[in-house]
Amino acid sequence: MDFEEFECSTEGGSLKSGLFDVLLRSFDETEEEEEEEVVEVEAEAEDVYFHEEPGPLPDLEWMQELSDESDGGGDGASDLAPEVDVSKQRSFAETARMFKLRRNLDQLDSIHRQKEHDVQKTREHLNICHHNIKSCLDQKNQLEKEIEQQKANNNSVAVFRLKTQHELLCQNLQNEEKLEGQILTELRQQEMELNMMEVQLGNVSKHHQVLEKEEQVFQVLKAQKAVARLEQERRVSQNRQRTMKLFMNERAVKLKEEEIKCQRKNEEFDVNRKLAAKYLRRSNKSSSDGENFKMEMEEMEESVNKRADDYSTPSDFFAEPEFSGLWEQECKKLVLSSAKSEVKEAESSQDSGTLNATAKRVLKQPPFSSKPEVVLFKDFEVGKRYKRKIILTNISYTISVCRFIRISPDLREFVSVNFQPPGSLSTGMSCEMLVTFHPLINEDLEGECYFESTFGPFSVPVRCAMKKCSPEVDCQSIDFGSYVVGQSVSRTITLTNNGALASFFSVGTSMHLSPARRHARLPSQDFLSTDPGSDNITYSGRGSSHSLDLEEVHPKQQSLSMESEINPQLSFDAGTRVNLTLVDYCDITLGNVRGGEIGPFQSVKLEILFKPTIPGETIMDFYIRFSDRNTKPIPIHVSGVAVSNPVWIIQPSIDLKICTFDRLYQYTIVAQSRENRAFKLTFDMCPEMRKHMEIIPKRGFIQALSTFKAQLKFIPRHSLSKDAGNYFDSDTGVLEVPMTVQVAGQVLPAQYTIHAIVTSSDLQFDQTEVDFGHCSIFHFVRTTVCLTNMSILPQDFGFVAVPEYIEVQPYDGFGTLLPQETLEIDLIFSPKKPIEYNFQLHCKSGIDRDFVLPCRGVGFHPPLVLSHSLIQFKPTAVGDKSTATIYLTNYQDKEAGTRLIKVVSAVEAPRLFCFILPKDSDISITPSVGRLLPGERCLVQVMFRPVLPEKMINEEALRLQQSTKLTSEKEQDVSRLPEQEMKRDVAAEPNKGRRTPASAKRRDMSFPSSKFADRVSLNPRCELYGKARDSLLRSFTQYYKEYIVRCFVSDGDPPEANVQPTWSPVNTLHLKLECPAIQPPLLVTSGNGNNVLDFRQVYIGSRVVERFTIQNISEEPVELTSSLLDIHGPFSLVNAMRGLNPGEKHTLVLAFCPALRKKYCEILHVRTLKMVLEIILRGEGALPFVSSSHPGDLPDVVYALEKDIVSQHFKLMNCSAETVDYRVMLASHSLNSPQHGADRVTLLLNGHRGTQIHPAVGTQNYRGLSVFSVLPLEGSLAPGKKQDVTITFQPDHSSLNYTDRLTIELLNKCKVCEIDLKGAVPSRNMYLCGMDSLTVPIDSLLPVFTPLHPQLTEAEEKPCIPVLVTLVASYKARVVRPAVRELRVGCISSPHANKKSGEFHWDDLAAVQQQGFQLEPAKGVVEAGSSCSITITWTPQSTYQPFELVQVCVPLTLKSDEVTTYKVTLMAFVSSAAD
User: What is the value of pTM for the model shown?
Assistant: First the structure.
């Protein structure tokens, strides 16, 4: 049920108080007060529903009807009484109270749900705030730790940056805490209101249960009423069917009885007729016996007349009309008037002598009256005798005498009068007269019987009428009056045959008989013939003819009449065949009986129906046509007025024009009433359109002679095509919905149709989201999206509230889209700040629809910045170059530390860059790759050197080759011409015209030459290639090209040396180049046009001279100047420059003298005003080459015992073509390398920073001897030969810091290799390495310290050697990776060692394992000359605290000649900076 929402004021608490006042007033009333207020509720029900609510409740109308039915009697009450107790039936006031209570409870539940939603939403906001506060606290703690760490490192710049971030973070934290307090206050207030609401809901919970029971009872009562109504309607329908069936059975029985009775009387009539004919034949034979025959005939006639009277006038068979018509009265008046006129004529025609003295008196009326007034022999048959008795009465005021005079001449042969004069008759006395009629012809006869009285003559009319069909209707004009469209009314007219002749009839609207009807024949009539082409119908008879002219018919009736399509079969059967005609489709129609046979003195009921469908007057003329030739058709004029429904829709066709989806369209439906009473209206809505249409109100009352307005709300949804079904055409968008308005008391509902064309109002983007990607703040990104108008209406659009970093084109994002038009929109994204952009572009249409296009992009300051993004080169000659200088800077963001949003590209790190040149371009960039440190700037040179494409040169070379071939062929043809002329003179006559084979031969010769040209290898160094290039340069004009060069930037240095760096497309830079090229003024003619002068290999000290020729191919003279060559270099220009006129050449003389073994390259620039010709000078100084195999042959550290001798070998190889001299040097033998001197002091003063720092010359043997020695110290290597070099290590005391440096040089000071030599001499044959260094990598300058305490005995334990092993676990991406270190235990193979092998083992491993350390292996054996690896792994325990240092000591014992114990201190911690 639909209820209006409860209206409340805007003041706080008014809704709550007003609603609960109503509830408490409804709940707390006592039963006595309810009984007292029932009358008030019933009286004020209308006020309640019209003042407290905007509109009437939709269920109150049928609810009141249900209440009225339950109060009333009838069949429905009797049917429902056994099922429902009358005492429990609800009154209208109770039902209204129930609905009002349900509305208030629903509103209370709605308020409670809203309160719960508000509390839940506030709690979500509070959770978000708590999450933000926690995140800020974590960041704050992290910053504080970083600040402390940077303070410890004395990094003031980082400390300042972190403090700034810390202040901003504290400010954000303060704001979040303030917001948290506000949200908490609001949450408490809302929770308190929610608790109050729940308490109030608990107070009214019992009323919910009571209300649910009442609603169940109400639904049961409603359902029972519906069942009772259906049962009542079913009974009424059954009674009607039963009554109709009985009526039809009775009617069939009566018709059968009448048919049998009529057949029996027809048989009797035939028998009597045969008897009359028999007696007539006898009378003709015996004429002498006239008197006897006369008496016999009179007796026979009496018997026949008696039987005929019984047949002709059966009072119990023929139905008489309900009332006498006016035509009978008119007939009687006409008969009387004619009789009076005849009496007057008879009086004037009599002689005056025949009248008495009293005859001179003028009489106003005849002296005698006859009864009957007219002697009528009706429906006679030829050969029969008929008698009539006439009584004449004296109606004068005196005694009179009456005598018969004569009879009219026309009746003398057929009528005889038997009258005995009675003598004097007093006033009021009467006498009798017998009139006998013996018809011999079948014609109508008329005449008079003349009499004479004392007062004058008088006459009695005599009429003889044969059998006729005399049809008549009781009503020829039917006026139905005014009826409402949709109603059905019928009128019945009675067609009576007053004659004794049966006839067939048909009812139609046309005067024309159907073809079947025209040729029908009755048994007692002749054939009926008509002319189909004329408008007259002629009935042919025995001796006369009568015609009926159709021109007498009214013109309007002729226009309405049509050729009848009723073709009943003319037979004596009662049944007829009924066919549909145009009448069936008019408002006035005929009933089931439309034709048939009407017998003598029978009546037929004809039903005429009036079913108005269109308002207005309807006139229809029907014609009853008969098969009798003497019977005229009977017209029946029927009229009726169709009045529109009392209630109708003023606008029956509602055109909503073009509508769009999800838009509200309203239309006012106006209903008009013309009656003087109120009607109940119900606006029906088809189920298919309920989701899209709504009529408010759905029910209402229209007052007398007024209008009722209802609001149509049409919101087409996108599911219209599925819901509407046949009402909506999804292809065309046409919607046509027939609607009705049910009017109480009106047969037809008021109908109207809603028309609309529904289209979409969407503006559709071809992309659901635009991702601009990463864009530099110095550039912009252009993206094209297509905007399509999906509607069939033009739509204006505009991009509103566009951010400043977005530009929409064309026309700044405004325009108009035609139906189904697609427009390309350019979105230009140019970020201003290096942040991430997530925004939406709002495109609004003309109907204020907002179409959102999500966009995202990342604005970043590129890690590398180009000083210029566009370079416009000057016009450059082909072969010349133009150079532009730009700067590439590694951007250092000083504010990156204070920015809350971290940008990946803003991380300060070294960057690798790489310029990718377009394919087949004339551009070169130097340097194309490189590495820039933060804040470093690199100069980049962009060079444009236009050259001719190789494809063009190849094509030109092929063209020149073909042209050369053709030229040579022509020369050969010219040389052969004299010989051909001589042969032509000698040749015979048939050979004169055979010149075509020669041309064909030339074509054959040219074809293989072209194939040969295709197979030519166009080497750039070949002569043809140079000619083609020169030809193109001489004919060159100019061209213009543009290039986009991309510069890829890495994300940083690779983590390892052999790993490729990651290149992010985000950091890519773009450089636009505009490059125009012109014809060069200078052309190189020497060296096949190559501008590279290569001196090749030249031995050091030699000099080579080459020549280089250039030509001026321009149309202007040029002045030549040259650049300076390196005065210390190997190249030199021998001759001077001079000016060149157009076409002149100049030869340059250049010399090359190398001084070193290397490749030399230098460029000589020959300058003009428009071009700088570069001549590349190349040469190579040849030197021998020697290689060494030392990188893979020597170990890092050599371990030995005192006085041991250890040797290592590596090889030298001469790879050059000449013999090479070399020498081997040790740093300890060099005078420039101090031994035990300043390098060690400097190392000690600077501090020890790492274990990898060692001096070039370390500890040496005593007495100043070097611990390392090399053999041989010098020598010579033949080409391709090898030489072994031996290095010997011979220490004389224990030390772990023996170092030296070996250098191998050639005679030209070129170093072949340089090797760092390291050695270690432990005090025992077993050693431990791989731990952290606790001392500097040099020996102390002080003498060895001798302890004062005596030497320990064997029984006493030797002190443990301290060893430190640091393990750092890595923490990245919330994953802790275990720390792993490796120690090596080795055993030296020495002849001075007593034991050849050794063993080791760890003690007290349980304590170490509890701290997360794993040592593998725990013990082992090491053979002499080998080593064993010990792996130490530390995994942080679950109880590990951040920044906690885990330290544990574990002893390691080495056993060989002696037992050595190491106190290994394992120190471990977790660091995020660890690798």
Answer: 0.39
